[in-house]
Amino acid sequence: MRYFRTMNDAPEGTRINKYFTQVGHCSRRAADKLIEQGAVKINGVVSVPGTKVMPGDVVTVNGIEVKKNDETAPVYIALNKPVGIVCTTDTKREKDNIIDFVKYPTRIFPVGRLDKMSEGLILLTDDGDIVNHILRERNGHEKEYIVTLNRPFDDEFIQTMSTGVSILDTFTRPCRVTRMSSNQFRIILVQGLNRQIRRMCEALGHRVIRLKRIRVMSLELDTAPGKWRLLTEKEVSKLRGG
Q1: Is residue 57 predicted with pLDDT exceeding 50?
Q2: Which residue is catalytic, options 70, 115, 154, 169?
Q3: What are the extents of the domains in the chain?
Q4: Which of 48, 73, 76, 205 is the most buried (most CB within 10 A)?
């Protein structure tokens, strides 16, 4: 198999995974997966992680050219994701994918993810820059959830959840946890570990039976389950400035 030049061979240009976000094809994480699968080529040659795209290069995914349509304004969507929908752009291997569910006429991709059994607010866009801004952990952006457990919990559970739980070989960052009922609480995270809330609860002997995200930064959930709407310019501006 032939490979294209790596970042050490090209002092200029844009890293291939960043290029995908700039043209609005997908997130960097999704781009890395495509590259690992050998689906990405630059000028007909298979790309590897770290490859740089130079002006005039032709980038393709599975033979289809990937480029920005400068005449199209960026798209920003707020979806109330129902349970059962998977936050992936892989429409071939996942029949319950979020892209086919939304059915937007142009290419978009989710900002982060909610696992299949979770519901609530998730953003979709074709603007890679805002994706990186929202997901960059050091920015400390808040995401708020309502969580229902399989059984009641005590005050020690709230205290431990708030101060940090050992999961995935690390301790979670401090967060805000507020009791809503004997088996339901509200939690505000500034971290995004894989299935973080579910893993935290499991580590403390509880099982999540419902997890709903109700806020991302300044944007609150305000649509019915399964429905979506376009964000206003003011909302986008707040997300960018957060």
Answers
A1: yes
A2: 115
A3: 14-65, 76-128+223-241, 142-216
A4: 76
